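Escalation from tier 1.

The customer reports that the assembly of two entities below gives different structure tokens on two consecutive runs. Tier 1 could not reproduce it. I'm attaching the input and our single run for tier 2 to review.
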Amino acid sequence: MVGKPVPKVDGAGKVTGQAVYADDIDLPRMLHCKILRAQLPHARILSVDTSAARRIPGVKAVITGQDLPIRFGILPVTQDEAALEGEKVRYVGDPLAAVAAIDEETAAAACDAIKVEYQELKPVMSIEAALKEAADEPIQSYPKRSDNIHRMVSYEFGDVAAGFARADHVREDVFFFQGSTHLPMEQHSAVATYAGGRVTLWSSTQVVHYVHRALSKVLELPMSRIRVIGAAHGGGFGGKTDPFAHEIVVAKLAMLTGRPVKCTLTREEVFYAHRGRHPVLMWVKTGVTRDGRVTAMHFRSALDGGAYGSYGAASIFYTGTLQTVTYDIPAYKFEGARVFTNKAPCGPKRGHGTPQPRFAVEMHLEKIAREIGLEPVELKRRNFVKPFSRAVNWLRITSCGLEECTEKVLTASGYANRKRQPGRGMGFAISTYMSGAGTAIYWNDMPHSEVQLKVDRTGVTLFCGAMDIGQGSDSVLAQIAAEELGLEARDIHLVTADTDTTPIDLGSYSSRVTFMAGNAAVEAARKMRALLVAAVAERMGVTDLEEIDVADGRVGEFSFEDASVLAEEKFGALASAGSYKPPRIGGPFKGSGVGPSPAYSYSACVVQVAADARTGIVTVERVWIAHDIGRAINPLLVEGQVEGSVYMALGEALMEEQVYRQGLHKWPSMLEYKSPTFLETPEMHTFLVETDDPEGPYGAKEAGQGPLLPVIPAVNLALQDALGVWIDEIPVTPEKVLRALEAKAKGEPPRFGPRGFPSVPYPEPILVEPPDPADLRVGDELELAFPMKGGGPPSAGAGRSPSPPGPPRAPRVR
Amino acid sequence: MRVSVPKSLDAALGLLAEDPQAVVLAGGTDLMVAINFGRARPEHIVSIARLAELKELVAGEQVLCGAGVTYTHLLQRVRDRALVDAARTVGSPQIRNAGTIGGNLGTCSPAGDTLPILAALDATIVVVSRRSGERRVPFSDWMRGPKQPALEPGELVLRAEWEEAGPAQAFLKAGTRNAMVIAVASLAMVVDRARRRVRVALGSAGPTIIRATAAEEMASGLIEEVGWERPLTLTEAARARFADLVAAAARPIDDQRGTGAYRRHVIGVMASRALQRTGAAA
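Tier 1 run:
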């Protein structure tokens, strides 16, 4: 089963309309909920008068901030959200009251009838403004600062000054990456019931467990009295990874009314729920030797976080941390800051905090290469990280197919021999991403993923908390169990993302599910296979268990069903469990928890564009992308993830912008917020490179996020190749291209982008001694928490070894 | 909210005569958006979706295009290339199946995709009411302002009429993407060689569709010199002057879709390309 391009197990249900999404749920006596949202970007709430709303026939309950005073937030360090704000509102769209009524229209009318008195405060709408002293009061109170800086970090790994001193050439650049939103097809939706003292919530969420925790905290109910079920999912891309106001509100309203309550956000509300890509200003300085080897890098970021914390404390780190697992940087300084503004809160969007620096660094290195007269691809290649190495900031790199990916796309595109002509160009870029975060959102030592298997006369059922958000995690789990039990994926019944019936999985974010739930599934399935094999061996009178083949629906000479009867007779109820916890691989310093991953994926990309110098319009013609997936458990799904990433990246590169005018979102609709359609989607050539990661299930790594990253700089560099202008800002719009061309015509630098980087009061850096690059182990922990049979570097599990492990098997290219 | 679904044109006109405040619903691609966003809350809606009389399309030398003709239908039947190009870029297949040319005329937005072409084809709009019967309005008088069609109370758009203008036509549109987009700017150009007539009309370039008359005259002069039945070879200078004249006719504003400066610039570029294409097509 593993390696077969089988269609998704839930595909037919989704295309035939049988899948039940949260908004499809219709329960007897169900009420409909609408949320009243702030119409001012920044204001104190003086009073909320709900009396007129309560008098409207059909209104069953009206709640305000007083009913849900306990604050929550995805990260323990930023519990700064209220399900309904009672004291102040911080962006247009902030929830402040909610109504449950017999239908949506009545609920909407009741929201309109709620009177809110505000005291207006001066809105803060840019990074620069947020860095200044607040005009009246800071947006959030907990930073205890007079400005609107949320959080700052500063690290220095190795001797950066010495690195720059050693350089033959040093360059600085400034870049800006505008924010964008996820734009999932399905709007957020949640339905709650309250019966027998228990809340049950169906939701379109990426993470049932984190919703479960937030509900427990805000509703003051033990987790045992709450059940969260992930409904069929219509897309998240990071936008459904936080617990949201509407999820808490419907639960509260169900408790108050004793009736089921549903809330489906309108598309406009989805733009306000947001948690999308942070706008980031970046400054980067790099030193290189004459032959293009990086000697040191200093990277600064300033993130526009919007009004709340969300994942922001982690987002800051992600703008800095992964630089070192992409290129070999012997000395690295990173300073990052996130500010609050009166906009919808930013959070994780596909690539979480890494597409912005990826864009900046790829552009920056290209500029350096041109300056020192080196072919940019060659300069980049000379600095690629090596497989089985440790970065200056202690991140551990295992399998790495960067070279193979690069070779593949360069050859297929004919990049080196491309015809140079005005108006047409090619760009090349690479990227890295994590196969799951090495640490959970909240500190605990428990597994990140658990899988249980049940086998009986009804077949095989797999239970796992993982939420399939369309990426195909259910299919991967079924394929893995089927592989180990000698069955087909369709033979595995799946129960997933239900906090009552399934064991925990931390959810669909940070590209973790195939890696972590996959490993848990391998363990559970192998334990189950051992039970079946033992029973069959006993009946066959065989002593060497290796002789019992488990394949093609058979266990030895028995059918799977008969084998399961034998095993149940011998052992009683057949159940097995597996779990996965990433190894502890962070460095020995505070803040090392963000960035470590049990394995990193790698991608390389070439983009070809046609650029119209008269209109400034850039058309992407072809994309070649190679992705080091480790091992493709399902190549069809991997290709889907890679191509979906390319598509999303093209939107960000050329048109998508979450921008504001006078405190208001400029275009909270799918007509005016422009995202590409089929007509803009170019020819794509996708190559999967398999490097067999030693820890991934069957060698697999992530696919859903990393391939987005190189596409954005590759588009921009292709434009540079075509017209000779640098657009140091995302998105690349026709107006910006024309402005850069005008500058070029006047003999000015042919560039459009930010002029400078603001003064940010970063703290003194934490100085970190770099590790011995040859040493892949940290402390006494085993470096591989779950080594797969037959994979991995030879030193796995052995004593501390000063020499780097040997190279892995030669990568295969599909 | 009352929704009437008359089954004949006569019944529809009766309803509109009774209640001139009633809002007409055709494909709903504008009205339903307004209702869903809470921008419109009409008391009475008269759906004209069932009126067979409005769905007639006669495509010959004289084109008679019923107000209820959808873009999909238009694409299949009409030969005027500019109109076909415009209809093809309207929305998505679903929107083209619902949206009608009468809707474009009734909504009367300067960004209406087919409106610059109807202007460049010198179309006549035929309206009808129970009280005054049929009334003919030249397109140049149709748009009184943004979203202000020359419709009197109780009147309904019946059809658009124009004379087939030959192959020298161009429609260009600048937008962030190729479909499902409201144009940043659009331009239609028709060189009717048989009638010795040049028309250039701009969309999303001002409060109404704007005709670039000085540019039209200049192009006529150029074609006159080589002869109306022959292809036009253009100098760079002539193209640039034509582009400048067209751009000068525009009255663009800054809005969320683009700046006035970019609109004027791109209109010039489109004009130059349209002249090239229509000049070559003889």
